Amino acid sequence: MSDTAFFLLETAIKALVILAVIATLAGLGTYAERKVLAYMQRRIGPWMVGPAGVGQVVADMIKLFTKEDTVPAGANRFIFMIAPFISSAGAFAAMAPIPFLPEFTLFGHTVYPILSDIGIGVLFVLGASSTCVYGLLIGGLASYNKWSLLGSMRSVLQLISFEVINGLSLIPIVMMVGSLSIIDIVNAQSGGVGNWFIWTQPVCFIVFLIASFVECNRTPLCLTENDSELVGGCTTVYSGMRFGIFFIAEYANIITYSILMALIFLGGFNSMWFIPGGIMMILKASFFFFFFLWTRAAWPHLRADQLMWLCWKVLMPLSLAMIFITGLVLV
């Protein structure tokens, strides 16, 4: 097989694997979340369908696929129907420049577990993941429902605000490495735990972690859904698999940001002691995924004014201060 043919085949397989694996993990993520929340809140969680309730994931998928796909009478039908796919497309596209595991050799060819190693990987991830807000926005606007409209407006309010913080918090890392490539950032942390950027840029790590909760629509920094309204925000009138696609996009974003934080701040796929790099990558990403669930079990929602105060009066000045300090140190 020629190198060109192998490259095309490899790229197609990688894309299919990313779609299949991440979509499956997103489904399992719902099970993990319910079990973690149940354990922390002294409840049982899924337990009747299959051993330890594992079959509940399959039961939920069957329910979503067979449930009636309703469209409100006054809704813009076409926009209403494509909105979930816009959110999921942005979530999966953001994974293209992310190196999930270290490179390995297969049939004499070196395989890189990354779909596209572009030089502006960090910028691409932030840009692609931010397009998910368009699905939430037009889904709420096209629903012909006041609760959906309010939910979509809150989504735009939080996501556009924290996009600024998301990017500013990573500028000091880019300044230190001199590259926007995620692989270059990981390679700059090789040499052990002491070289991880979480030690040299702890403030940036905390700011990016907080912004990640907003990007993924996770409690306590989520305005898409408001518990006091007892409705589902911009997804209030969605049903069936279209409702499920919104949640697949949300969990795909959680997985993306869990991996991204492990890559940028915790050394990524670099090996540590006797533990191979691939195992370390899985452990780090799993910790952050668990942290998303843990935080939801422990903290209530913030109000919209509290979230905006945190964004513009606390996190933005901190991010700008870290850029200034990093510039002084480098000079």
TrEMBL record:
Chain segments annotated as transmembrane: 12-32, 44-66, 78-98, 118-144, 156-176, 196-214, 245-267, 273-295, 307-330
Catalytic activity entry: a quinone + NADH + 5 H(+)(in) = a quinol + NAD(+) + 4 H(+)(out)
Chief localisation class: membrane
Subcellular location: Cell membrane; Membrane
Keywords carried by this UniProt record: Cell membrane, Membrane, NAD, Oxidoreductase, Quinone, Translocase, Transmembrane, Transmembrane helix, Ubiquinone
Membrane topology: Multi-pass membrane protein
Any one cellular-component term (Gene Ontology): plasma membrane
EC number: 7.1.1.-
HAMAP family, alphabetized: NDH1_NuoH
Function: NDH-1 shuttles electrons from NADH, via FMN and iron-sulfur (Fe-S) centers, to quinones in the respiratory chain. The immediate electron acceptor for the enzyme in this species is believed to be ubiquinone. Couples the redox reaction to proton translocation (for every two electrons transferred, four hydrogen ions are translocated across the cytoplasmic membrane), and thus conserves the redox energy in a proton gradient. This subunit may bind ubiquinone.
Family of the protein in this entry: Belongs to the complex I subunit 1 family.
Protein name (database record): NADH-quinone oxidoreductase subunit H
Organism this protein belongs to: Campylobacter geochelonis
